[in-house]
Amino acid sequence: MKLLILGGTGRVGSHLVENALQADHHVTALVRTPEKIQIQHNNLTVVQGDVLSKEDIEQAMDGADMVMSALNTDGGTTLTDSMPLIIDAMKKEGINRIITIGTAGILQSRVSPELLRYQSSESKRKLTRAAEEHHKVYELLQQSGLDWTIVCPTYLPDGERLGNYRTERDFLPVDGSQISVPDTADFAYSLLQSSDFIKARVGIAY
User: Fold this and answer.
1) Tens-digit pLDDT profile for residues 30-66
2) Residue 68 belongs to what H/E stretch?
3) How far apart are CA 18 and CA 16, in angstroms?
4) Which of 3, 15, 58, 126 is least surrounded by Cβ atoms within 10 Å, i.e. has the fewest?
């Protein structure tokens, strides 16, 4: 399989790249700073570019079968500005499947089910800007017609890969308080071979 991975130099994204290469997939990573990718592999193509450039995204997506995005909020609007370009390029290339990393803040609240967690008393975070960015991406994907899945981790320490975690469609698993970066990537990667969570958010926690 040929994968385009966005955000491949980040915490979760770097693990996604490693997982895919270990499984012998062909990976294209679109990155601003190629030297941040330390991996050398025959199946890895590193493309220097910007996710805010339509041309760069289309070039990197050429020939891909699927897209994985671990782009995070950077203090600006890169996340929401890039997603329409990604969606348009996918449609142009005829790619239907995208798996992205979001945040538990955009899952449904258990205490106020009509609200998302970041909008309710369930969230302990005072700042909501990052969740608002992820919320906009969720809405864009809902409207896209693509087969999307948003993996929504809660508190995300680096930690170890345990391979033992809970997931739940649209909600954070009850009493879930954290999930490691490697296990988040492990679950996201497993979705390449699964249709269990098409057009859904997935909460993940221990």
Assistant:
1) 999 999 998 989 999 999 999 999 999 999 999 999 9
2) strand 66-69
3) 5
4) 126
Structural domains in the chain, sorted by start? 2-205 (3.40.50.720)
Residue 99 backbone phi and psi in degrees, to 5: -120, 125
Tokens linked to 39: 């991996």
Overall size of the chain counted in residues: 206
21, two tokens: 């290469």
Q: 94-124 burial, b if ≥16 CB within 10 A, otherwise e?
A: ebbbbbbbbbbbbbbbeeeeeebbbbbebbe
**Whether the Cβ atoms of residue 157 and residue 181 lie closer than 8 Å to each other:** yes
Local structure of 186: helix, strand or coil: helix
Please state, in angstroms and rounded to a whole number, the distance separating the CA atoms of residues 185 and 187: 5
85 three-state secondary structure: helix
Question: Does this model's pTM top 0.90?
Answer: yes
In 3D space, the residue among 125, 194, 111, 116 whose CA is nearest the CA of residue 152 turns out to be: 116
The answer to whether residue 149 scores a pLDDT higher than 80 is: yes
pLDDT at position 49 is 97
